[in-house]
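R.M. (postdoc): so does anyone remember the format we settled on? I'll just put the structure tokens first.
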């Protein structure tokens, strides 16, 4: 939007322009968009959103003082902000709902990018969508100017910010879409208008809100419903829950066993051979986890839908708290996977722990939230599975996770919350242990990582040598 006039920015956002554009940086339009005046960069458009505890519009003058190109605020803040702009400079845009204005602006920018030839890929799923996004971004970056949603910018606030952050010369934008209920994926799809849509999987997340796997599939399939005719959708092979939502006017590419994109071979060095129709692709990914190899298939299918054939070495840096391995000392390794959890992702993480730990396997498992009446039984299934695959020691965290402990046959400790786990775990670990930390985001198990000193230590290489950094992340828990 750098070349856009203030009038065009206001029109695109459906806003009224109260004050003229800033000339302080010799720019016509903003260089970026921010919703936090504390981290705003000079030249950004500041959008004052109203939250549960704060009203961002009250920080508009501070944003202008920090060098904002302009501000987008509710009409109630317009007069005072225009007065501040008169002395400090900057454009003042007012909208009855600044979030809706930012979403409209993001959609307008998406249309501008399309006019320049850029494509958009949108990824959703019950688990693994962030890792799939990270993998696809790495696949594309070698040959194309690409941009991707950073960390967890995947909601009705985050996705517009991610889209608005895409530079004008980008060729592909990879966006992640999360939801907590019906209608939300449809809203995000309308903003992004993707050329390729990816549904990584359908699993028992948000059962409490949606009630059934069929309802979850329907919510994810809002992505399919919102795709334009002639675009492409990538889905897991043999997923019956998605079949009622498929459309004959879309190109459908399936991945996984018996899919159009499938894994043919895994070499001793971690190299993989992937089939797409009659073609075979050879890749050497920097990861070896089985669930991420499946995510790789989804990413390859999306790349192929864009006309890109990936090959060679693939270096992926995964987003924080999603399976990062951190060396803690004395040969002890932390698998930090505490960003989120549901029964599908919990089983995958436990399987990875069992497959890769050279010595004692320790699992710190917390509550899986929003599972509704089925929650106790689903937690008990996790306890049985952990015992079956050979986990040696379990620490359950939270009232729901007690059900995991009930069916786990090995050494078990139960604590009420993350603080209890952070206090207990250092006294349980032995040199050479591998410890998995996983729960829903609301449990706050990042405190356990901090208690082990992980934040002060260097990341350990993954199974195939990829350094994996540990970093904080924030945002609402959505899948």
């Amino acid at each position: 939007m750098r070349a856009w006039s203030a009038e065009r920015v206001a029109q695109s956002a459906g806003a009224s322009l109260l004050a003229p554009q800033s000339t302080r940086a010799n720019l016509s339009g903003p260089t970026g968009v921010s919703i936090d005046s504390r981290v705003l960069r000079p030249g950004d458009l500041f959008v004052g959103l109203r939250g549960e505890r704060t009203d961002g519009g009250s920080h508009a003058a501070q944003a202008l003082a920090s060098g904002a190109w302009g501000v987008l605020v509710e009409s109630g803040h317009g007069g005072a902000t225009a007065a501040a702009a008169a002395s400090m400079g900057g454009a003042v845009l007012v909208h009855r709902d600044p979030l809706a204005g930012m979403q409209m602006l993001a959609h307008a920018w998406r249309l501008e990018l399309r006019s320049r030839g850029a494509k958009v890929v949108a990824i959703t799923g019950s688990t693994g969508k962030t890792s799939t996004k990270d993998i696809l971004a790495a696949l594309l970056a070698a040959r194309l100017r690409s941009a991707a949603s950073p960390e967890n910018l995947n909601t009705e606030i985050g996705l517009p910010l991610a889209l608005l952050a895409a530079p004008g010369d980008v060729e592909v934008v990879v966006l992640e879409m999360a939801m907590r209920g019906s209608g939300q994926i449809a809203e995000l799809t309308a903003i992004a208008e993707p050329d390729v849509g990816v549904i990584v999987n359908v699993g028992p997340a948000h059962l409490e809100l949606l009630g059934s796997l069929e309802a979850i599939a329907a919510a994810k399939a809002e992505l399919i419903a919102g795709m334009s005719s002639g675009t492409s959708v990538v889905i897991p092979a043999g997923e019956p829950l998605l079949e009622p939502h498929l459309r004959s006017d879309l190109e459908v590419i399936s991945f996984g066993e018996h899919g159009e994109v499938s894994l043919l071979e895994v070499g001793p060095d971690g190299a993989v051979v992937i089939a797409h129709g009659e073609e075979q692709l050879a890749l050497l990914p920097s990861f070896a986890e089985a669930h991420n190899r499946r995510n790789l298939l989804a990413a390859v299918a999306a790349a192929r839908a864009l006309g890109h054939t990936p090959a060679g070495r693939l270096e992926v840096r995964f987003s924080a708290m999603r399976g990062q391995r951190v060396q803690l000392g004395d040969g002890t390794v932390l698998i930090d996977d505490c960003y989120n959890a549901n029964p599908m992702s919990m089983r995958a993480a436990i399987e990875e722990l069992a497959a890769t730990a050279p010595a004692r396997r320790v699992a710190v498992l917390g509550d899986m939230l929003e599972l509704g009446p089925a929650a106790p039984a689903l937690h008990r299934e996790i306890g049985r599975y952990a015992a079956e695959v050979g986990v040696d020691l379990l620490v359950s965290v939270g009232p729901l996770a007690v059900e995991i402990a009930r069916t786990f046959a090995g050494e078990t400790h139960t604590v009420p919350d993350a603080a209890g786990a952070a206090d207990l775990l250092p006294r349980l670990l032995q040199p050479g242990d591998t410890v998995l930390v996983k729960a829903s985001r609301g449990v706050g198990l990042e405190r356990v990582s901090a208690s082990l000193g992980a934040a002060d230590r260097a990341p350990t290489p993954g199974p195939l040598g990829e350094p994996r950094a540990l970093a904080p992340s924030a945002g609402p828990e959505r899948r």
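R.M.: ...and that's the designed sequence above, right after the tokens. Also worth knowing: Confidence is low (pLDDT under 50) at residues 454-477. The first strand starts at residue 16 and ends at 19.
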